[in-house]
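User: quick one, sequence for these tokens?
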């Protein structure tokens, strides 16, 4: 008894797939006009080709290995994120916001751990997920009353001097007296006291530089790869140092200092010991 050939063909016509069938069944459909040579055929789940190309190709031996199954469009790869998290002494990078939020909700990342975006500042995870502050509505002030305009008051006229008669040789003529010029009286001192003298001071002529008080609150700004960080505590700065994100040569600044007063960490007494074990 002749062994029947396995059905290894699938047919595609007008978007509808038929089969499986064999070469003999394909030829019957062609002879009946139900298929044309421009329709498609797939051999053992291979890619689709024209039926005319399949019929004109030489027959392959049965021992040939079946072709690989095409999976169609490639599976899209997830794009890497731009967030980095510093938790437990190590930096986890290339995360999305959803990834960080999932770790945060699972308590694998805490509010006091650090986070930064690509090229952005380091900050606390709790500050990153904090809701934005509510907008402050401006308070409408009532219009100020207009200032009264001062009206100048004319000054009272000065009385004119009354002429008096002063006898002079050869006759009498009215002469107005000349006003006497005020004479400053000399200062009066008590008999038992000496005149006041100018106090002399050894610091006269010298400027005294007032040093700023040492910082009392534990809050610092650090420059990491040239980026100004958010306010960080000392243990945050130490965590960045242990993760090799910064060194003792990086500069830091306290909020009470001037905005241009950046100092190396090794020269700040409050932070110089972060490299000690």
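Assistant:
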């Amino acid at each position: 008894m002749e062994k029947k050939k396995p059905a290894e063909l699938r047919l595609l016509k007008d978007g509808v797939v038929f089969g499986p069938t064999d070469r003999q069944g394909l030829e019957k459909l062609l002879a009946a006009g139900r298929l044309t040579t421009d329709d498609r055929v797939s051999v053992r789940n291979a890619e689709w080709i024209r039926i005319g190309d399949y019929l004109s190709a030489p027959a392959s031996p049965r021992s040939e290995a079946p072709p690989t199954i095409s999976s169609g469009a490639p599976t899209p790869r997830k794009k890497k994120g731009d967030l980095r998290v510093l938790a437990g002494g190590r930096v986890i990078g290339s995360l999305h916001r959803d990834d960080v939020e999932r770790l945060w909700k699972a308590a694998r990342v805490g509010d006091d751990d650090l986070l930064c975006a690509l090229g952005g500042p380091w900050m606390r995870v709790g500050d990153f997920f904090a809701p934005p502050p509510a907008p402050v509505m401006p308070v409408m002030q009532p219009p100020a009353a207009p200032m009264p305009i001062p009206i100048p008051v004319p000054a009272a006229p000065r009385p004119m001097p009354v002429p008096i008669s002063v006898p002079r040789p050869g006759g009498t003529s009215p002469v107005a007296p000349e006003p006497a010029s005020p004479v400053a009286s000399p200062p009066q001192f008590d008999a038992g006291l000496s005149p006041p003298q100018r106090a002399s001071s050894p610091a006269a002529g010298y400027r005294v530089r007032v040093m700023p008080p040492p910082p009392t609150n534990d809050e610092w700004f650090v420059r990491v790869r040239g980026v100004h960080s958010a306010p960080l505590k000392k243990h945050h700065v130490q965590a960045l140092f242990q993760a090799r994100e910064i060194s003792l040569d990086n500069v830091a600044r306290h909020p009470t200092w001037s905005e241009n007063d950046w100092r190396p960490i090794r020269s700040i007494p409050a932070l110089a010991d972060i490299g000690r074990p």
